[in-house]
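Subject: Protein record for review, amino acid sequence with backbone structure tokens
How to read it: Take the token row as a discrete description of the fold.
Enclosed: The protein record, placed directly beneath this head.
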Amino acid sequence: MMRKKVKNISALLLSLCVVILDVSFPAFAASAAVSVSIFETVNYRYFIRPLNLTIEEGQTVSDLLDLLVSYAYIDSFESEDGMLTSLTADGQTFDQSVGHWSISINEVESAFAPLSVPLSSGDAVDLTFLSDSPSESESEEEPIPYESALFSSFFDWDSEKTQILRESALWLEESGASDPLALIALGAAGISASYRDITFFLQTLSEETDGEALAKGALACGFCGVNATSALDVDLISVLSEYPDLSREATAWFLIAADSNQYVIPETSLNSRDNMINYLLAAKNEDGGFSTQKGEDSDPFFTSIVAIAFAPYIHDPAVNEATMDALTYLASLPYDGDSFVEYCASICAFASNSRHLPDDMIDGDAMVNRVLDFQTENGAFSSHMDTASDRESTIWAIFVLAAARSEESPFTLSATIDGDATIPLPPKTDPSTEGTASYPSNPNHKTPSPWLWIPVLLLSGGLIYVAMRWARTK
């Protein structure tokens, strides 16, 4: 009888310990590493290339999409009876009015309530939006044709150039893209940067004080799917609009960033749009080019950046004249083989203003094809023939291809980032020292220290010992 009572009391205390552990450590749930991709056949592009995420074992496809929303990879989604009915990304909505969503798990299409399917570690989830338009779905490798005053006559976009753009962007993605221009290039190419690279970029940007770096960072925010006014603890646009003694380079990049996502800058700001335009207009030289410092010779690269920044204001007479003079100056420059990045920047300037250029100003097709001659075997680009590929050349070649494909500035977002779009920042890590990216399933979740188990186990053992001694005395 005594032993039975001891066993009952011990069992009760053990159950109590289990409850204590469950309450104290609910986060020790099994995690599952899964991959997800999202592709749409309207424009034939990836919203998300295969991306590795960590969720809790047993969470569903719907939970996975919620995670993508929290990380700002997609804007939102809607479902009905476990079926995906609508998904919005980059400001564009894909719903049943123009097609339907197909969801495959481990390459097997799920026809019944796919959003409710629980996931396990190693699962691969692929979402594809299938357009109902026969004309678009028949030419799967061909992009939608574009038309403009410049490239309709001189440039024909085709599947070969689509492949070149993909190859160069993938090389850049695989080599690491946590710096602003690299992130912008990936975004312009239609590829989502990794969560690891974006968070490292934002962490670095939060410590930045240089005006030009902040301006490029503000521009990169939009291409990462976050809002520069809320991505950091401070409103980056407000900081830049009152930044003292902003250099001309920084001014040009800030004007591009401000217009890329249509940020509001008060007219009374130190660096209002009007003040920035006037500051840049004052940098014009007699030859039509622009220089960063008064009295210096015109700088082809800076002239291209200014022409890109001026594109949204081309209807202003003073800006129009200065822009056309700048483009005429750029068109007159010979390409000597030692200015690859400058040459790429000039093509982006022409594309940014293509709808206002005479057809005979440049041979756009020849210029872009000359850039393609510098692609290396690994898909990247180099600044000289028969030399190793480099990041800067690859980035600017991607800008050229993105500009030619859309026939506008490669620094213009396809859709504005509204609201307080941002992502949570984990502890700072260097992406160059890590292997594959690891993504938390809950950005606010902190894994408790394993040392916390010791006092709980000691308490449990003590309770059991006291109970057994008490039972023996009875």
Observations:
- The longest strand covers residues 45-56.
- Residues 1-7, 18-28, 134-154, 431-452 have pLDDT under 50 and may be disordered.
- The radius of gyration is 28 Å.
